[in-house]
Design a protein that fits this description.
Helix content is about 35%, strand content about 15%. By secondary structure, the protein is an alpha/beta fold. The strands form 3 sheets. Strands 1-9-8-5-4-2-3 form a 7-stranded mixed beta sheet, with helices on both faces. A 4-stranded antiparallel beta sheet has the order 10-12-14-13, with helices on one face. Strands 7-6-11 form a 3-stranded antiparallel beta sheet, with no helix packed on it. Helix 6 links the parallel strand 4 and strand 5 (about 165-170).
Length: about 375
């Protein structure tokens, strides 16, 4: 009997390659996934999904969760449940990945790009309030790279104008704002379990909320519009979507949540290594953490204090020449050709020119971290010379 070799055989076996991120996979994940593949069918088809939902919502202390095929899908469902549509405006940060914005556009609404704060790189609350119009349907804040938004200020604005606050916590699993988990403050929050994220289902997401009405609407929307409380089978109550997470994905996710503290501790350890290494240099800083907050440091980001002798693309090429992955800070979304340009958002346009994301994954070694730091240090010394 001929057995085909895996497509990805030996792709990750190059010992010299240092990836940006990768999930931490142990025997537990493999065991749960194998069980889901063998037994997770028929009446067992949702067992891991239900257990993952229960465990994840318990971990972050929130009532309801709807696992999805992606964080983008979760955001799309939530916005749809809020009734976001044609002619509406949704306020979003200028600096984020396009996944925070594409559901807004696909629902027929208009994203209103607001600048970010210089320290946290998250949306500026004072500019959020200034951007509110009678058409504003929602405010989306993004906890960038694990950094936390100014939630107290945003909640006050949300309540003052009776506008739902949505937390895009795709990158903030494990981040806490004065003892409470990111993603649990707004009308709803969304998380990502993409293969690059702190915990992963390969690809996936979840919408979480304490609002029972939103939860029920999203559950129906996520199942082709089927209301499972209706006795009439295969009879949708509305036109819905299909953003459901699979049982196999949820099996991996359950194992990841059960190991989450171990994975989060390593993320913090890696960030401390970078900060300690460059503690004697004045021209470089890293992810911000306000007093009272706990940053999970999904992606360590080095920020140079000025652009002198600095070219982000050149630095990325320096890393690539040593077989090390590195990536740029998110470019301002209004600079994309399909959005209206907004040159007033000066912080969002400045930071990508002098910031770079660095490797962080569970089994990164000290020698790999030192190799990354030595390349970065060479650039720092050039700037400070």
């Amino acid at each position: 009997m001929n057995i085909m070799m895996p497509y990805l055989n030996n792709k990750n076996d190059d010992p010299s390659h240092i990836p940006m991120t990768r999930p931490s996979i142990t025997k537990k994940e493999i065991s749960y996934v194998n069980d889901a593949m063998k037994n997770g069918w028929g009446s067992n088809r949702n067992n891991y999904i239900e257990e993952f939902e229960k465990r994840f919502t318990h971990e972050i202390d929130i009532k309801y969760g709807v696992p999805t095929s992606s964080c983008t899908g979760a955001l799309h469902l939530g916005l749809s449940a809020l009734g976001v549509g044609l002619g509406d405006e949704v306020i979003v940060p200028e600096s984020t990945w396009i996944a925070s914005v594409s559901p807004i556009v696909h629902l027929g609404a208009k994203p209103i790009f607001v600048d970010i704060l210089k320290d946290s790189w998250c949306i500026d609350p004072s500019l959020v309030e200034a951007a509110i119009t009678p058409k504003t349907k929602a405010i989306v804040c993004v906890h960038l790279y694990g950094n936390l938004c100014e939630l107290n200020q945003l909640i006050k604005i949300s309540k003052k104008y009776n506008i739902p606050l949505i937390e895009d916590s795709a990158e903030a699993y494990g981040s806490y704002y004065f003892g409470k988990h990111a993603g649990t403050f707004g009308t709803f929050g969304v998380f990502s379990f993409h293969g690059s994220k702190t915990i992963s289902t390969g690809e996936g997401g979840i919408l979480v909320t304490n609002n029972e009405e939103i939860y029920k609407k999203v559950k129906i929307l996520n199942d082709h519009g089927l209301d499972r409380q209706n006795d009439k089978q295969y009879f949708p109550s509305k036109l819905g979507y299909k953003f459901k997470m699979t049982n196999i994905q949820a099996a991996m996710g359950l194992a990841q949540v059960e190991r989450s503290q171990e994975i989060l501790d390593k993320k913090i350890e890696i960030m401390k290594f970078y900060k300690n290494y460059f503690s004697d240099y004045n021209s470089i800083s890293f992810n911000h953490e306000n007093i009272g907050n706990k940053n999970s440091y999904w992606l360590p980001t080095a920020l140079f204090k000025n652009k002198k002798n600095f070219c982000i693309s050149g630095l990325i090429r320096d890393f690539q020449s040593q077989n090390i992955d590195a990536r740029s800070f998110f470019w301002p979304l209004s600079s994309l050709s399909f959005f209206q340009s907004n040159t007033n958002n000066k912080v969002s346009r400045d930071i990508p020119k002098r910031a770079i994301n660095l490797s962080s994954f569970h089994d990164i070694t000290e020698s790999q971290l030192l190799k990354i730091c030595s390349i970065l240090e060479h650039k720092v010394q050039e700037i400070e010379a």
